[in-house]
């Protein structure tokens, strides 16, 4: 009989913000793709006042994974306990706790505790988990610190926007056009190269070279979570120089009159250190905001337009 051994680790970081603010960002899981690099998409399955079930899609050691967690929230003690209800191999079990403690100077000591077991205590599996937990914990804590401190100092670096189109056709056909991104090189003029992998149904990794108006190209890589035939959420894991964050979603909603509303939504955070290198010595944050709104919006509107034509041809 195999007895799985539980391993325990702890990571921590100091954050220059009130503990209540730090706690709130962790408690509200819709923030996770924005503040935690590994997180791609998080959704509530059940939600109560102190207990909830959430499903998480994230990267671990470069691989896209998803799992379901149970959480217990304690806003008074600023503690959040979590336990993976359904883990992905090589993880047999995973639990932990977030603790936001006030320091003597009013900042936050944020602690992240993990306890986990590997399937059959396999050494290779345990080594994989050790590495993933350490890498993700360090990245999550550093990113949360940066996000919180940035939010209190320069909110203008982050912006959200969307574009929409009305389609005389079915949501399924428009969804299929966006979902079948491996065909974009032949379907979209602004896509020069594309590679799509989908080891788990509905969980995609998309790598592509996108052309800009001046003829240059940039390479991006995204993890996409697909919900047929209504939504595709994504997060870029390889970003252009001007951004430190890019998340988004495509949504498709059928209306009562037989039409479909398709929407492309983006949330981006500007990298202030690269603005002048990318846009010129006189450029600042306003110019970067306008540039990204136009560049991303143009590509989204083009994709929506081709999806519209594709769906309407199949009425």
Q: What's the total number of strands?
A: 14
Rg over CA atoms: 21 Å
Q: Tell me the distance between the termini.
A: 60 Å
Low-confidence stretches: none
Mean pLDDT: 92
Could you tell me the strand content as a percent range? over 45%
Can you walk me through this structure?
It is a single chain. With 315 residues, the chain is of the alpha+beta class. It is 28% helix and 45% strand. It is built from 7 helices and 14 strands. The protein has helices spanning 19-27, 32-35, 123-151, 171-179, 184-187, 275-279, 285-312; strands spanning 7-15, 39-47, 51-60, 63-74, 79-86, 91-102, 108-118, 158-167, 191-200, 203-211, 217-227, 231-238, 243-254, 260-270. It has a 7-stranded antiparallel beta sheet with strand order 1-7-6-5-4-3-2. A 7-stranded antiparallel beta sheet has the order 8-14-13-12-11-10-9. A hairpin with a 4-residue loop joins strand 4 (63-74) and strand 5 (79-86). Helix 4 (171-179) packs across helix 7. The N and C termini lie far apart (60 Å). The mean pLDDT is 92.
Keywords:
single chain; 315 residues; alpha+beta; seven-stranded antiparallel β-sheet; 7 helices
Topology, please?
Blueprint: E1 7-15, H1 19-27, H2 32-35, E2 39-47, E3 51-60, E4 63-74, E5 79-86, E6 91-102, E7 108-118, H3 123-151, E8 158-167, H4 171-179, H5 184-187, E9 191-200, E10 203-211, E11 217-227, E12 231-238, E13 243-254, E14 260-270, H6 275-279, H7 285-312
Antiparallel strand pairs: 1-7, 2-3, 3-4, 4-5, 5-6, 6-7, 8-14, 9-10, 10-11, 11-12, 12-13, 13-14
Helix pairs in contact: 4-7
């Amino acid at each position: 009989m195999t007895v799985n051994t539980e391993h325990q680790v702890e990571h921590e970081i100091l954050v220059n913000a009130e503990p209540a603010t730090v706690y709130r960002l962790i408690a509200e899981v819709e923030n996770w793709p924005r503040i935690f690099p590994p997180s791609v998409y998080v959704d509530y399955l059940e939600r109560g006042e102190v207990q909830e079930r959430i499903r998480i899609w994230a990267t671990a050691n470069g691989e896209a994974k998803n799992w379901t967690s149970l959480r217990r929230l304690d806003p008074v003690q600023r503690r959040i306990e979590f336990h993976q209800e359904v883990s992905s191999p090589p993880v047999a079990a995973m639990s932990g706790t977030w603790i936001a403690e006030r320091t003597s100077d009013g900042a936050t000591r944020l602690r992240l505790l993990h306890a986990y077991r590997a399937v059959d205590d396999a050494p290779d599996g345990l080594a994989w988990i050790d590495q993933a937990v350490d890498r993700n914990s360090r990245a999550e804590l550093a990113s949360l610190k940066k996000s919180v401190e940035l939010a209190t100092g320069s909110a203008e670096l982050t912006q959200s926007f969307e574009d929409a189109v009305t389609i005389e056709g079915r949501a399924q056909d428009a969804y299929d056009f966006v979902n079948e991104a491996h065909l974009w090189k032949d379907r979209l003029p602004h896509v020069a190269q594309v590679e799509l992998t989908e080891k788990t149904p509905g969980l995609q990794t998309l790598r592509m070279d996108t052309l800009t108006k001046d003829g240059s190209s940039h390479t991006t890589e995204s993890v996409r979570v697909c919900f047929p035939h209504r939504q595709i959420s994504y997060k870029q894991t390889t970003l252009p120089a001007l951004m430190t964050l890019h998340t988004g979603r495509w949504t498709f909603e059928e209306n009562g009159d037989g039409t479909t509303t398709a929407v492309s939504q983006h949330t981006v955070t500007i990298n202030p250190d690269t603005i002048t290198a990318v846009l010129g010595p006189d450029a600042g944050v306003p110019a970067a905001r306008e540039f990204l709104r136009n560049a991303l919006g143009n590509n989204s509107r083009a994709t929506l337009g081709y999806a519209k034509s594709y769906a309407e041809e199949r009425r």
